Protein backbone atom coordinates (compact mmCIF):
# COMPACT_ATOMS: atom_id res chain seq x y z
CA UNK A 1 0.00 0.00 0.00
CA UNK A 2 1.03 3.58 -0.72
CA UNK A 3 0.14 6.90 0.95
CA UNK A 4 -0.92 10.26 -0.42
CA UNK A 5 -1.70 13.43 1.54
CA UNK A 6 -3.74 16.27 0.05
CA UNK A 7 -5.17 19.49 1.48
CA UNK A 8 -7.93 21.27 -0.39
CA UNK A 9 -10.20 23.17 1.94
CA UNK A 10 -12.53 21.50 4.36
CA UNK A 11 -11.56 17.85 4.68
CA UNK A 12 -15.24 16.87 4.79
CA UNK A 13 -15.55 17.65 1.08
CA UNK A 14 -12.29 15.97 0.11
CA UNK A 15 -13.02 12.45 1.37
CA UNK A 16 -15.90 11.22 -0.80
CA UNK A 17 -14.32 11.71 -4.26
CA UNK A 18 -11.40 9.47 -3.25
CA UNK A 19 -13.26 7.09 -0.94
CA UNK A 20 -15.45 5.86 -3.79
CA UNK A 21 -12.57 4.89 -6.12
CA UNK A 22 -11.36 1.32 -6.64
CA UNK A 23 -7.98 0.66 -5.07
CA UNK A 24 -8.53 3.04 -2.16
CA UNK A 25 -8.08 1.26 1.15
CA UNK A 26 -8.85 4.25 3.40
CA UNK A 27 -9.28 8.02 3.43
CA UNK A 28 -8.68 9.69 6.78
CA UNK A 29 -9.47 13.30 7.64
CA UNK A 30 -6.77 15.02 9.67
CA UNK A 31 -4.25 17.78 10.12
CA UNK A 32 -0.73 18.28 8.80
CA UNK A 33 1.89 20.88 8.02
CA UNK A 34 1.96 22.64 11.36
CA UNK A 35 4.03 22.81 14.52
CA UNK A 36 1.55 21.52 17.13
CA UNK A 37 1.77 17.82 18.00
CA UNK A 38 -1.59 16.02 17.95
CA UNK A 39 -3.69 19.13 17.36
CA UNK A 40 -7.42 19.16 17.98
CA UNK A 41 -9.99 20.63 15.64
CA UNK A 42 -10.50 23.51 18.06
CA UNK A 43 -6.75 24.24 18.09
CA UNK A 44 -6.51 24.16 14.29
CA UNK A 45 -9.49 26.54 14.08
CA UNK A 46 -7.54 29.14 16.10
CA UNK A 47 -5.17 29.38 13.09
CA UNK A 48 -2.21 29.24 15.48
CA UNK A 49 -1.05 25.65 14.87
CA UNK A 50 0.13 26.09 11.29
CA UNK A 51 -1.80 22.98 10.21
CA UNK A 52 -4.00 22.49 7.18
CA UNK A 53 -7.06 20.30 7.13
CA UNK A 54 -6.02 17.41 4.94
CA UNK A 55 -6.76 13.84 3.96
CA UNK A 56 -4.47 10.84 4.05
CA UNK A 57 -5.20 8.25 1.40
CA UNK A 58 -3.97 4.67 1.63
CA UNK A 59 -4.14 3.12 -1.81
CA UNK A 60 -3.06 0.16 -3.90
CA UNK A 61 -0.82 1.51 -6.66
CA UNK A 62 -1.57 -1.63 -8.70
CA UNK A 63 -5.21 -0.52 -8.94
CA UNK A 64 -5.04 3.30 -8.86
CA UNK A 65 -1.88 5.29 -9.51
CA UNK A 66 -0.64 8.44 -7.80
CA UNK A 67 -1.10 10.43 -11.06
CA UNK A 68 -4.72 9.24 -11.12
CA UNK A 69 -5.14 10.50 -7.54
CA UNK A 70 -3.66 13.83 -8.59
CA UNK A 71 -6.20 14.09 -11.42
CA UNK A 72 -9.01 13.55 -8.91
CA UNK A 73 -7.44 16.07 -6.53
CA UNK A 74 -7.34 18.86 -9.12
CA UNK A 75 -11.03 18.31 -9.81
CA UNK A 76 -11.90 18.96 -6.12
CA UNK A 77 -10.13 22.29 -5.58
CA UNK A 78 -9.81 25.81 -6.89
CA UNK A 79 -6.07 25.76 -7.60
CA UNK A 80 -6.04 29.53 -8.16
CA UNK A 81 -6.99 30.38 -4.55
CA UNK A 82 -4.09 30.29 -2.09
CA UNK A 83 -6.11 31.70 0.81
CA UNK A 84 -8.65 28.92 1.29
CA UNK A 85 -11.18 27.03 -0.73
CA UNK A 86 -14.65 28.26 -1.64
CA UNK A 87 -16.45 29.29 1.58
CA UNK A 88 -13.57 28.01 3.76
CA UNK A 89 -11.02 30.79 4.28
CA UNK A 90 -7.59 30.93 5.88
CA UNK A 91 -4.31 29.01 6.04
CA UNK A 92 -5.88 25.87 7.45
CA UNK A 93 -7.87 25.54 4.21
CA UNK A 94 -5.10 26.30 1.69
CA UNK A 95 -4.56 23.84 -1.17
CA UNK A 96 -1.40 21.74 -0.77
CA UNK A 97 -0.11 18.51 -2.27
CA UNK A 98 2.15 16.94 0.36
CA UNK A 99 4.63 14.56 -1.22
CA UNK A 100 6.08 11.52 0.54
CA UNK A 101 8.80 10.72 -2.00
CA UNK A 102 10.77 12.39 -4.75
CA UNK A 103 8.69 10.44 -7.26
CA UNK A 104 5.47 11.89 -5.82
CA UNK A 105 7.02 15.37 -5.90
CA UNK A 106 7.97 14.99 -9.56
CA UNK A 107 4.54 13.62 -10.51
CA UNK A 108 2.80 16.45 -8.64
CA UNK A 109 4.94 19.08 -10.38
CA UNK A 110 4.24 17.52 -13.78
CA UNK A 111 0.49 17.44 -13.13
CA UNK A 112 0.51 21.05 -11.85
CA UNK A 113 2.35 22.21 -14.96
CA UNK A 114 -0.06 20.32 -17.22
CA UNK A 115 -3.01 21.97 -15.46
CA UNK A 116 -1.40 25.41 -15.83
CA UNK A 117 -0.92 24.80 -19.55
CA UNK A 118 -4.43 23.40 -20.06
CA UNK A 119 -6.09 26.81 -20.27
CA UNK A 120 -8.87 25.80 -17.84
CA UNK A 121 -8.00 28.63 -15.47
CA UNK A 122 -7.32 32.25 -16.34
CA UNK A 123 -5.31 32.83 -13.16
CA UNK A 124 -2.03 31.20 -12.02
CA UNK A 125 -2.12 27.79 -10.34
CA UNK A 126 -1.05 28.54 -6.76
CA UNK A 127 -1.49 25.16 -5.09
CA UNK A 128 1.78 24.42 -3.32
CA UNK A 129 3.72 21.17 -3.43
CA UNK A 130 5.43 20.56 -0.10
CA UNK A 131 7.29 17.79 1.69
CA UNK A 132 4.96 15.80 3.93
CA UNK A 133 4.83 16.51 7.64
CA UNK A 134 3.44 14.24 10.34
CA UNK A 135 -0.24 13.55 9.71
CA UNK A 136 -2.60 13.58 12.70
CA UNK A 137 -6.03 11.96 12.27
CA UNK A 138 -8.93 14.23 13.16
CA UNK A 139 -11.46 13.35 15.82
CA UNK A 140 -13.83 10.48 15.03
CA UNK A 141 -16.82 12.73 14.40
CA UNK A 142 -14.94 14.15 11.37
CA UNK A 143 -14.29 10.73 9.82
CA UNK A 144 -16.65 9.66 7.00
CA UNK A 145 -18.57 12.91 7.46
CA UNK A 146 -20.26 12.62 4.08
CA UNK A 147 -21.80 9.30 5.17
CA UNK A 148 -22.82 10.43 8.66
CA UNK A 149 -24.22 13.85 7.66
CA UNK A 150 -25.36 13.64 4.03
CA UNK A 151 -27.54 16.79 4.10
CA UNK A 152 -24.84 19.00 5.61
CA UNK A 153 -22.23 17.48 3.30
CA UNK A 154 -24.43 18.23 0.29
CA UNK A 155 -24.75 21.91 1.31
CA UNK A 156 -21.00 22.25 1.85
CA UNK A 157 -20.22 20.47 -1.40
CA UNK A 158 -22.70 22.46 -3.55
CA UNK A 159 -20.49 25.56 -3.85
CA UNK A 160 -17.50 23.47 -4.90
CA UNK A 161 -19.56 21.53 -7.41
CA UNK A 162 -20.96 24.70 -9.01
CA UNK A 163 -17.49 26.21 -9.45
CA UNK A 164 -15.86 23.03 -10.64
CA UNK A 165 -18.62 22.18 -13.14
CA UNK A 166 -17.47 25.12 -15.21
CA UNK A 167 -13.83 24.02 -15.19
CA UNK A 168 -14.03 20.27 -15.87
Automatic annotation (TrEMBL):
EC number(s) stated in the UniProt entry for this protein: 1.8.4.11
One Pfam annotation, family name? PMSR
User: Which source organism does the UniProt entry give?
Assistant: Enterococcus alcedinis
Superkingdom of origin: Bacteria
Active-site feature positions:
10
Which Gene3D superfamilies does this chain map to?
A: Peptide methionine sulphoxide reductase MsrA
Q: Keywords for this entry? A: Oxidoreductase
Q: Which reaction does it catalyse?
A: L-methionyl-[protein] + [thioredoxin]-disulfide + H2O = L-methionyl-(S)-S-oxide-[protein] + [thioredoxin]-dithiol; [thioredoxin]-disulfide + L-methionine + H2O = L-methionine (S)-S-oxide + [thioredoxin]-dithiol
GO MF, one term, reads: peptide-methionine (S)-S-oxide reductase activity
> Do you know which HAMAP family this protein is assigned to?
MsrA
Q: Where is the Peptide methionine sulphoxide reductase MsrA domain?
A: 4-154
The free-text function statement in the UniProt record for this protein reads:
Has an important function as a repair enzyme for proteins that have been inactivated by oxidation. Catalyzes the reversible oxidation-reduction of methionine sulfoxide in proteins to methionine.
Specify the protein name: Peptide methionine sulfoxide reductase MsrA
Q: Which gene encodes it?
A: msrA3
> Member of which family?
Belongs to the MsrA Met sulfoxide reductase family.
The major lineage groups are: Bacteria, Bacillati, Bacillota, Bacilli, Lactobacillales
